[in-house]
Specification:
With 230 residues, this protein is an alpha/beta fold. Helix content is 27%, strand content 27%. The chain is globular. The protein starts with a strand and ends in a 6-residue tail after the last helix.
């Protein structure tokens, strides 16, 4: 079903909010049910039959995470202590950038069903989109990046402070979108996303009704008590 796809995972964060509860466990390796956070992210992306899967790791705990992953999955690791979310986004997207390829990026702490990430990518391909975002009505982030949509045109109208949805950590990018990511121009990922000219760019979306952003121990408990794993 899927071809010409390359995937990446952002797993370079320090996971500071988990350190009290999991002092010796890097955030990507925290278990939810029978698997780690990064297991869920990788298995979702592998369902897209990617030509390459890259994982961005930090220098502090990256080797621990890589040692866990290297004999389990066909991955390439990038080690970097990125200072901002934008630096991570720029590094990983440009590492994977290739003409005629669809690039799918996921945070390590975004939990959703494989069927949703597959539908999201199909939306992107079928609409020949510049960029496609996973969005959710379940806004539980401290600083959500809100999304305003045009249902009739099936496009995003704005990203920033207005809207009834929030980004959920899944990004599907065209070659042109990655080419517009300039490290000198932006310092935060939300600055790049909110600066897009939505009148001239086809920015699509897929609504994920059941999506979890696992940022701290309370999010972990919400996920464990949900019906997601049933």
């Amino acid at each position: 079903m899927f071809k010409n796809i390359k995937c990446g995972i952002f797993a370079a964060g320090k996971g500071e909010r988990f350190k009290k509860s999991f002092p010796n466990t890097p955030k990507p390796l925290i278990k939810v049910g029978e698997k780690t956070l990064i297991d869920y992210a990788i298995e979702n992306l592998l369902s897209l039959n990617p030509e390459e899967l890259a994982v961005l790791l930090n220098l502090e705990t990256g080797e621990i995470v890589y040692n866990y992953l290297k004999n389990r999955y066909p991955i390439n690791a990038i080690m970097l202590d990125s200072k901002t979310s934008f630096e991570s986004f720029y590094t990983l997207s440009n590492y994977l950038k290739e003409k005629s390829k669809t690039i799918v990026l996921s945070t390590t702490d975004t939990i959703l069903k494989k069927s949703d990430i597959q539908k999201l990518v199909l939306n992107h391909i079928n609409s020949n989109a510049y960029l496609t975002l996973g969005i959710t009505p379940l806004i539980n982030d401290e600083k959500p990046l809100l999304v305003e949509i045009d249902r009739q045109k099936e496009k995003i109208k704005s990203i920033g402070i207005n809207g009834n949805y929030a980004t959920n950590g899944i990004y599907v990018l065209s070659y042109d979108a990655i080419s517009d990511i300039k490290p000198i121009k932006y310092s935060k990922l939300r600055e790049f996303l909110s600066s897009i000219d939505f009148n001239s760019k086809n920015v699509s979306y897929h609504i994920v009704e059941e999506s979890f952003d696992v940022d701290d121990i309370s999010d972990l408990k919400i996920l464990e008590n949900s019906k997601f794993f049933l």
